[in-house]
Amino acid sequence: MANASMEEFEALLNESFEIDTPAEGSVVKGKVISIEAGQAIIDVGYKMEGRVDLKEFANPGEAPSIAIGDEVEVFLRAAENARGEAVISREMARREEAWDRLEKAYAAEERVEGAIFGRVKGGFTVDLGGAVAFLPGSQVDVRPVRDAGPLMGLKQPFQILKMDRRRGNIVVSRRAILEESRAEQRAEVIGNLSEGQSVEGVVKNITEYGAFVDLGGVDGLLHVTDMAWRRVNHPSEILTIGETINVQVIKINKDTHRISLGMKQLQADPWDSVENKYPLESVHQGRVTNITDYGAFVELEPGVEGLVHVSEMSWTKKNVHPGKIVSTSQEVEVMVLEIDSSKRRVSLGLKQTQRNPWEVFAETHPEGTQVEGEVKNITEFGLFVGLPGDIDGMVHLSDLSWDERGEDAIQNYRKGDMVKAVVTEVDVEKERISLSIKAVEGDPFAEAIGGVKRGSVITVEVTAIEDGGVEVEYEGMKSFIRRSDLSRDRADQRPERFGVGDKVDVRVTNVDSKTRKLGLSIKAREIAEEKEAVEQYGSSDSGASLGDILGAALKSND
After folding, report:
1. What Pfam family does this protein match (any one) (predicted)?
2. Enclosing domain of residue 466
3. Tens-digit pLDDT profile for residues 387-402
């Protein structure tokens, strides 16, 4: 009997030797046999016991959950230490278990559950059920997170972006999960929307060019030009963040999931009635909304603006910037010149609401009227004089003086001088007014010659004797009689037969108002007298000598 017992014992002993003791660096199962001094004493079999701090049985931010009799997996770091105990770790066992699980999830592109438990440079640490991962700050949310406090310790899904077991690196993303669910939500919301539909939304963000409106999980862009029919300089003029508004879906891009919205589309288009409300040549009150180099925009009513081109702004200010004629927000009277409803354009005129100053001047200052004005400008061809109605008239060089050459006469004038002039011509179409300064005192030539005309016989006084003829004077006007006109007879065509101071009867052969000269001839007078005498007293052909005829004529005159 004893032999049998010894054999059984030997068999059991051999069996126990055949069973390998667990290898260091592997995960083994154990049983909690005692809890003391903040540690759990675990029997891992094979006559080995080890100690594990209770905190290794706790999830981040939670209390340890462990009791005597619990079966747990631990990592065997060493079979025996100096005290003869096994060196074991629950945390390392959990890590090994977690890595196995995470590698499978990473390969299958599945989400994993974890909790953010700490903050590190550039992001956060996440416990993935035993393995610690890094969550970059950019991967926390779709938008920058200012306060991550509410996310700490909260169990939630993550996506593994990268993992390296050898180096012990895992990088995860919470943002990828949010974007995925958001994309699903967007797709669902967009699927329920249609172009032309009117929906309610909340203003989420305002920019220079428009506003983003939340339509319940998906944002749409309300562009500034679609907010109102009138000109909107900045969206904040009519919208505030958090405001609930009604908008119309203008366009949905199925590929990019972009939604364009409009507010003005829900209101009546003022352009539908523009042609009826603003007939051509009608005058209306408007407000200047914008000024450019080429004109000014005037709002006739909200949503209807017209352009006053720079050429239609003023009758007199031709090369002036529109900003010097009108100012923004100024109320002005304008005339409707043209309407193009298809292009939504109205051409307006500012100057047409006032009378053409050249027309007014022509009515109030007919030719011959005397005016007074300031010399505004001096040019090589004359003076420009300021006239009533903010217009200018021009005095040509030839209209400055009767006696002086224009080039010399203009030297007597300076900018700012007040001068008197006579209106000689008004051309309304060409916007020209011609003036004459010399005409103010009358024409001395016209006054001097009085009723003298071509063919008249006048008496002149010799003032100088020259080789080519004689200089004579009539009523202060100088003239010159050429040698060939001094007598009918060649023998008497000698200037020296006259003396200074002699009175001589001459015939007027020409009156030149432009050169202001009289053409005079003694010869022409003699020929005319002879012709008249022959007609009255007989013909030289009858036998009477010319001396007889002229003698009879002279006797008759006596």
Report:
1. S1
2. 444-538
3. 888 888 998 888 888 7
